[in-house]
Amino acid sequence: MNTIVLASNYYGEYPTLTMVKEMMNFVFSGLYTIEAVLMIVGLGFRGYFSHILNIFDFLIVTISWSELYFHFQKGNQEGVQL
What we know:
Layout: H1 2-7, H2 15-49, H3 52-73
């Protein structure tokens, strides 16, 4: 769901829609973080990181929060431009 929201940007988008999508990204990042934390608590640190898909999920959560951090540091611009 988050991928669809993030991929739906277009030129001339209404500022209100952009703000709503930014908030949805923040909410999804929070939900994925809660999921990762609960799984780490439930499986234990070694149990969680012993599965490759959990490592991938943790990497995606970390990148998501990094993107949000840089986005808000730049003053509500288009996020990190590579």
